[in-house]
Amino acid sequence: MRYKRRIMDRNGDLEELYLLEKRREKLARISKLVSFLIILLLLGLYVFLNTRAEPVSFDTNWLIIALFIIFPVLNGLLYRLFCSLNFGKNGGTQRANFDKFSGSDTAQDTDALGQGTAQTGQILSTDTNEGQVLKAEAGEGSGSKDSDSRMSATYGRFEPKAAEGEGGSEKGGAGRSKFNFLADLQSLEDERAALQKAVKKAGLIAAVVGTGVGALVARFWDEVAAGVFFGVAVYGVVSALLTASKRRNFRSNFKNRVVASIAKSFGLSYDESGGLGTDEFFEIYDCYINEQSSEDMMSGEVQGVRVRFSDFYAAEKVRTKNGTRTDVKFQGVLFVADFHKRLNCEVRVCHKNSRNLRKYGQRANMDDVKFEEFFDVYTTDQVGARYALTPLLMQRLTEVYLRLGSQINAVLREDKIYVAIETWRDNFEPRIDCSLKQDATMALYVDEIGALVGIVSELNLNRKIWSE
User: Among residues 285, 338, 339, 337, which one has the least CA distance to residue 312?
Assistant: First the structure.
């Protein structure tokens, strides 16, 4: 999940994020429109060339396939260009907004969210100018005293807990924990750099092999298009096979060292191969699936509330006369939290653009205008819906949606809340093109988990409603 901002002022900065989201949606619509017009222009040019005395000889089927490939690529490039022109060189990414919303208030908010961490921790950050890892002591609320609160806000809670019960004092355990983490980080950075070089080398080898195969196919079949198709296919297969083992090892090492340490800093346990199941998925969605997988399970207690969340993938494979087609129903994060009292009603918060949702009860109109702009609420009890969906909870759900830029859906039923975040990609994954020793890179992984923990933090502030 790529977060725009996890920690911010609850009023002013949320309004700015709201406006940024509306601008982003507008730019997305403009890029699609411009891409569509360019495709129409290309089609018009093709028709014009074929109306001349000497028409251009080109297979129409290949033209259609080419245009289908060009449209999404062109749309993505135009969107990035428009974002760069509007938001600066970072293109309106989470890094640009991370800097934009940094301030002295962030450390205080970090303390409020991070009660699952050690009371006296260390701030782990990276000096991007010198390339050295800095270590600074941070007491409670110390970030507000530091003029450079961006590092404090990012890493104030990122102190892997000392392994209690493993012998030695807590202080000694914390020191060893930090030392081990820094050593692991350096080891992973070396592994990432080696993998990056291997990928480039594999790409060069695959390009040579793919070009050779494509040339042979084109010569044998006397068809250039077929040669290009087979050449590209061989390039992809060869490059993937040459680096598959190294990618798999780096991915596993990264998750078991970095992701596990970040999860532990929030008081959560981590299981790379574990995950939530279809029971939790069908609490929110109503669709047929015959393929599903889950991984990156994190579980534990946050401020007295038990939580579980993991990456989840669900799809339907359909057989057609041309082969098998995969219809992805959901890809993202499933989140479940337990509460201390049971609800007597069922409340469903549905994003307006989501599909395949399970909708029970009647539509409920809520008082939050921004919340209503993005979500529809269905419930079996109108009064109970307003009792459960407090103004703070609606604001929190809106914040999470705006930060993630991903559609979210939630269900409150009995003594649980189920949340589905539709990221449409594999989450908690390492990127080989970004150095692990840059604070911006590590901040993304911290925020990825921290925003999910933050949902519980807001719910815990309203915990009294569950016990009345």
Answer: 285
How confident is the model at residue 452, as a pLDDT?
Answer: 79
259: nearest Cα among 249, 273, 270: 270
CA distance 185 to 95: 21
For residue 132, count other CB atoms closer than 10 A to its CB.
10
Separation CA 281–CA 297 (nearest Å): 14
Structure tokens at 183: 């050593």
Residue 103: name the closest of 138, 136, 148, 154 by CA. 148
DSSP 255: I
Tokens of residue 271, six digits: 């299981």
Instruction: Kindly list the distances between the CA atom of residue 32 and the CA atoms of 93, 319, 353, in Å, as whole numbers in the listed order.
Output: 19, 31, 17
Mean pLDDT per 10-residue interval, the chain, length 468 residues: 38 61 78 85 77 62 69 80 70 40 35 37 33 32 40 44 42 50 81 91 92 87 78 89 92 90 90 93 94 93 87 92 88 86 86 90 89 92 86 82 83 90 87 80 79 70 48
Which residues share a beta bridge with 384? none
As beta bridge partners, residue 379 has 347, 362
Q: How far apart are CA 128 and CA 226, in angstroms?
A: 47
Q: Cα separation of 358 and 282, whole Å? A: 8
What is residue 284's three-state secondary structure?
Answer: helix
Q: Which residues have CB under 8 Å from 406's CB, separation 6+?
A: 1, 332, 421, 422, 423, 424
User: How many residues are there in the chain?
Assistant: 468
pLDDT of residue 349: 94
- Name the residue type at position 89: K
The whole-angstrom distance between residue 167's C-alpha and the CA centroid of its chain comes to 37
* 158-161: Cβ within 8 A, 24+ apart: 158/123, 158/124, 158/261, 158/262, 158/265, 158/442, 158/446, 159/117, 159/118, 159/121, 159/122, 159/123, 159/124, 159/265, 160/261, 160/262, 160/264, 160/265, 161/117, 161/118, 161/264, 161/265, 161/267
pLDDT at 384: 85
| Angle (deg, nearest 10), helices 105-113 and 439-461 | 60
Residue 336 pLDDT: 93
What is the rounded CA–CA span in Å between residue 299 and residue 296?
A: 10
